Amino acid sequence: NGNAGFQQVLERLESDPVCQRLSLKSFLILPFQRITRLKLLLQNILKRTRPGSEEEVQATQAYDALEKLIKDCNENVQRMKSTEELIYLSQKIEFECKIFPLISQSRRLVKRGELTALDFNNPSPKWKVTTRPIYLHLFNDCLLLSRPKE
């Protein structure tokens, strides 16, 4: 998004009739769509093969291998999404000191959300309560609290 030249080239390519006005994302997702179609095809082949035949054994092996491939693809997609979230978060969060490396191969963002912190400033009979937003970022290995820059 930050590279105007790349955006121009991408728009020119996507508008080319050879690409049938499909976006880059659609080309990137095509292999995954084909894999899931292959799974459906193998399911139909398994329904039509004779039980106990050599064809059933081969189709079952192919189906199991395809299941493993789909599972691996889904895990890699989730890993990439998690890494993208960490990169985005590291660009938004500014630490006072750079001791804590936010991006790590093993770190995953589990949950995030905004809470309201209550500050009781005066312990007199008339409590003065002020609120401020606090953001929680729960990772698989730590909990990070942050607040918006004032």
Automatic annotation (TrEMBL):
One of its GO terms (cellular component) is nucleus. Residues 1-76 form the DH domain. GO terms for molecular function: guanyl-nucleotide exchange factor activity. GO terms for biological process: intracellular signal transduction. SUPFAM superfamilies: DBL homology domain (DH-domain), PH domain-like. PANTHER family: DH DOMAIN-CONTAINING PROTEIN-RELATED, GUANINE NUCLEOTIDE EXCHANGE FACTOR. This is ARHG5 factor.
